[in-house]
Amino acid sequence: MLALGMASLSAARAADPKPAESAVGGMRIIEHTLVMTLGGTEIVALPPNLQTASISLPAIVHINLVSQKVAEILAHQEGRTDVLFTGKDTIYRFHITVQHVAPR
């Protein structure tokens, strides 16, 4: 599901400083972990020659494809989901947790 629109940037933080890499069936897989605040957004790079984008639980996050090289992930509902961006020979897999930040 692709969402259109803009939202303010969140304080999304990477849970792992360097993404894990592996290879399966000739495809290079690069895994990222993001923790996002409910209502926030994160700008991410896309793999070269983007072919598909998929979300395991589309109610959790929405994707706005800004260009062939950049996407915006919007944190829509609390929970966990995976987002896969597939290129010709590379997959970027994002493990995303969206959480509500309690007021101080």
Automatic annotation (TrEMBL):
It comes from the Bacteria. Pfam families: T2SS-T3SS_pil_N (PF13629). Residues 32-90 form the Pilus formation protein N-terminal domain. The lineage of its organism: Bacteria, Pseudomonadati, Pseudomonadota, Alphaproteobacteria, Acetobacterales. This is Pilus formation protein N-terminal domain-containing protein. InterPro entries: T2SS-T3SS_pil_N (IPR032789).
